[in-house]
Amino acid sequence: MPASLRELRDRKASVSTIKKLTRAMELIAASRIVKAQQRAQAAGPYARELTRAVSAVATFSNVDHPLTTEKENPRRAAVLLITSDRGQAGAYSANVIREGERLNQLLREDEKEIVPYLSGRKGIAYYTFRQREVAQSWSGDSDSPNFARAREIADALIEAFLTPTEEGGVDEIHIVFTRFVSMLTQRTDVIRLLPLEVIEGEEPPAADEVLPLYEFEPSAEEVLDGLLPKYVASRIHYCMLQAAASELANRQRAMKSATDNAQDLIEKLTRDLNQARQAQITQEISEIVGGASALADANAGSE
Amino acid sequence: MADETSGKHLEVALVAAERTVWQGQAKIVIARTTDGEVGILPGHAPLLGLLQAGTVQVRTVDDEYFVAAAPDGFISVANDRVSILAENAEMGHDIDLEEARRDLERAQATGSDTEAAQEDVRLAEARVQAAEKTS
After folding, report:
1. Based on CB atoms within 10 Å of each CB, which residue in A50, A62, A222, B38 is the most buried?
2. Would the pTM of this model clear 0.95, i.e. be above it?
3. Residue A246 confidence (pLDDT) above 60
4. CATH superfamily for domain B2-91
5. Residue B64, Cβ neighbours under 10 Å: how many?
6. In terms of Cα–Cα distance, which of A198, A190, A174, A168 is closest to A67?
7. Going by CATH, does the domain composed of A30-206+214-252 fall within 3.40.50.300?
8. What is the ipTM of this complex?
9. Which of A37, A59, A214, A222 to mutate to test the interface with B (most CBs of B within 10 A)?
10. Model confidence at B115, in pLDDT bands (50, 70, 90)?
């Protein structure tokens, strides 16, 4: 007999508990995705208006802003990884980290020094385990990022960017995050945050839409000065919202397959259990029959 | 474009980072930019300005009047569309005046040495102003 009845029964019970757990997590993730998508949608108007305004200023004035200027001979590159705080999301964080490693490799080949910035506990755990130095890290709200957090990250990154390279500043900033394409597809993506390329927006204005000739108050330079940091924060917020939705979608998928696996296991265990019980019954019957006939033989011999 | 629609109304959107606070039609929008107060009527020339002090007054087409706090924001006007963007925009009547005053006092008490503290004071001031004007 492969396993005793009691053992099989215990295993089945524990797999059933696991299934209930993963099922609950799947449902929670599913309900949160909707919220995350709504949040991403609600943040849309702000990002759109901001992109419009920034491209208007950039088009109508030939202002060189420190945030848009490419530095000659860049030597230090900051990489911001957006990972999740919690596991149980399949390969979500692993994918981001792997993409980050690939980017690091690429930057190193260009002889740039890497300055890592991390968002999410999983990324932090990966870096601290390998005892790598991290410039700054944030965690605690990877599945529902708010704008204040995005702003905090943006401030830190802009400050690093504006510091001269010799004093520990950086020359360019990249973000590795997961883009939420649909419920089924999430793609790990790398974008360069700074120096800014203003033209590229989430929704470029239509070709026939001519930007009006704006008056600037107080001046184009100062308006740009005020707008660009907001624009950077808005981009980071966008990335974090996308990442949050992707994390939840990944978690839902991972938990769904875990639930399915648990179900398969339960079915297999039930079959084993039935077989074992049947075997036991068969054995008992044959023992009884064997005992009875032995008794009958003995009686027949004594007569 | 501007001629066809001018004399009618403005399409106003007050947008915060995480949501649209208010959207509707208005007769006039008054905002204070770093260069001074501007009143925007339908047919206004395209404008991009940084807001100072951070309150915006709006009179809607139904002659309703409200004040919103939009600290650290900016305004863009084009083709009778007015967009006011501020990370923490709030409608005046959503703000509890007493609470806003307390916040302002607390912000002022912590001093204005750092940039963050100054920003706190500015934000609190804008909220108090918006709440006062509404009530």
Report:
1. A50
2. no
3. yes
4. F0F1 ATP synthase delta/epsilon subunit, N-terminal (2.60.15.10)
5. 10
6. A198
7. no
8. 0.75
9. A214
10. low
